[in-house]
Design goal:
- The chain folds into two domains: 192 residues, Medium-chain alcohol dehydrogenases, catalytic domain (Quinone Oxidoreductase, Chain A, domain 1); 131 residues, NAD(P)-binding Rossmann-like Domain (Rossmann fold).
- Helices cover 23% and strands 26% of the residues.
- The strands form four sheets. Strands 4, 5, 6, 9, 10, 17 and 18 form a seven-stranded mixed β-sheet that branches.
- α4 crosses α5 and α4 crosses α10.
- The longest helix is centred in the last third of the chain and has 14 residues.
- The protein is globular and about 65 Å long.
- The structure holds NADP nicotinamide-adenine-dinucleotide phosphate (NAP) and zinc ion (2 copies).
- The site of one zinc ion (ZN) has 8 residues, from α2.
- The site of one zinc ion has 8 residues, from α2.
Length: 359
């Protein structure tokens, strides 16, 4: 059952969605057209869609000009309702997730290596929304009742995970899992997660499950109890200057999820020799870093973006094995604008998820 109706004359389908018509406009109910089901396409009956801070950045054009109307949403969990004639991986009823991209060139070195998120092909990565599909039409995201995508770009959600709390794994989850896995978070490693929001709380859960000693670096101690329950061993306030003197030189890995303009030089000083600070929060403007703390201790500053298809599946399977999901607040679609305001005010523990049946 969906809110969409199938347009039998063209075989495209008109589906219910929530969209911003202009930058910064409130999101409102509308309809969008999904492409006809191709040979290798599947139709997903969207059940839940997470609200990522990146949705707010893109609706507000923080990162550049957006494509409007914009239907955000790249933390999608649903059930396959229809498959194209050439589909081999899925059947109706399968539980699937879709993250930040719905296609890529499939031929560049990165695509061949399963690092689709770093696709260097001419047309590059096709983002789930605010992008342009191979058909030249704008892509529309998960704040919607149905999605039509190529079967290769859907992921399997383990049966043990509830779909609502699994939805945020498709962006927040993989964005933290990937750098933690890449830089070897595990037993004997000290890891700090900066910012306990949608991304940060997943980082705490993953780093803890991987066996690392985890410290949350948050603006205040307001969410300390939650942080410790999520698996943090230590919780320190970055507003307290003693945090930076007492923890100097102590971490192997720091993952910064904050999009505000932090003093990254100060955070680099918290790393051990050869430690790495990984930036996943995406500020609007370039940040300034002093080279001294990098030179004094051969420390690195790096970045990381979501994850490729194989690693996203690996992350979902890891979540299935370890019983990991996101901490969510389920909302109706008519509460999206209020949820945006609350994310901006830091008033969310820890991810809003839209019940797509209310779209
Ligand atoms: P979020 O839920 O709003 O969490 C961000 C956290 O940053 C807040 O909970 C807060 O944690 C901290 N924070 C906020 N304002 C701050 C300030 N002025 N100074 C210091 N800390 C502040 O956002 P999110 O969904 O986790 O996304 C975080 C960032 O990652 C966004 O920029 C988003 O676009 C980006 N992102 C990147 C990728 C990627 O692939 N690289 C993927 C998804 C999202 P405390 O209260 O604990 O300090
Ligand atoms: Zn996201
Ligand atoms: Zn590619």
């Amino acid at each position: 059952m969906t809110n969409g109706t199938t347009d039998t004359t063209s075989t495209t389908r008109t589906v219910a969605a929530y969209a911003a018509q202009h930058p910064d406009a409130p999101l409102a109910k509308t309809t969008v057209t999904r492409r006809a089901v191709g040979e290798h396409d599947i139709v997903i009956d969207i059940k839940f869609s997470g609200i990522c801070h990146s949705d707010i950045h893109q609706v507000g054009e923080d990162w550049g000009t957006g494509i409007f109307p914009m239907v955000p949403g790249h933390e999608i969990a649903g059930v396959v309702s229809e498959v194209g004639p050439g589909v081999t991986r899925w059947k109706a009823g399968d539980r699937v997730g879709v993250g930040c991209f719905v296609d890529s060139c499939r031929e560049c070195d990165n695509c061949r290596a399963g690092l689709q998120q770093y696709c260097t092909g001419e047309d590059g990565l096709v983002f789930t929304y605010n992008g342009t599909g191979r058909d030249g039409l704008p892509t529309y995201g998960g704040y919607s009742s149905e999605l039509v995508i190529d079967e290769a770009y859907a992921l399997s959600i383990p049966d043990s995970l509830p779909l609502d709390a699994a939805a945020p794994l498709l962006c927040a989850g993989i964005t933290l899992y990937s750098p933690l896995a890449h830089w070897g978070a595990g037993p004997g490693k000290k890891v700090a997660i900066v910012g306990l929001g949608g991304l940060g709380h997943m980082g705490v859960k993953f780093a803890h499950a991987m066996g690392a000693e985890v410290t949350v670096l948050s603006q205040s101690l307001r969410k300390r109890e939650d942080g410790l329950k999520l698996g943090a061993d230590h919780y320190r306030a970055t507003s307290d200057p003693a945090t930076f003197s007492e923890l100097a030189g102590s971490f192997d890995l720091i993952v910064n999820t904050v999009s505000a303009d932090l003093d990254l030089s100060a955070y680099l000083g918290l790393l051990r020799t050869d430690g790495t600070l990984v930036q996943v929060g995406m500020p609007e403007k370039p940040v300034t870093v002093h080279p001294y703390p990098m030179a004094l201790g051969r420390r690195s500053l790096s970045g990381s973006m979501i994850g490729g298809l194989p690693e996203t599946q690996e992350m979902l399977d890891f979540c299935g094995e370890h019983g990991i999901t996101s901490e969510i607040e389920l909302i109706r679609a008519d509460e999206i604008n209020e949820a945006y305001r609350r994310v901006l005010a830091g008033d969310v523990r820890f991810r809003f998820v839209i019940d797509a049946s209310t779209i």
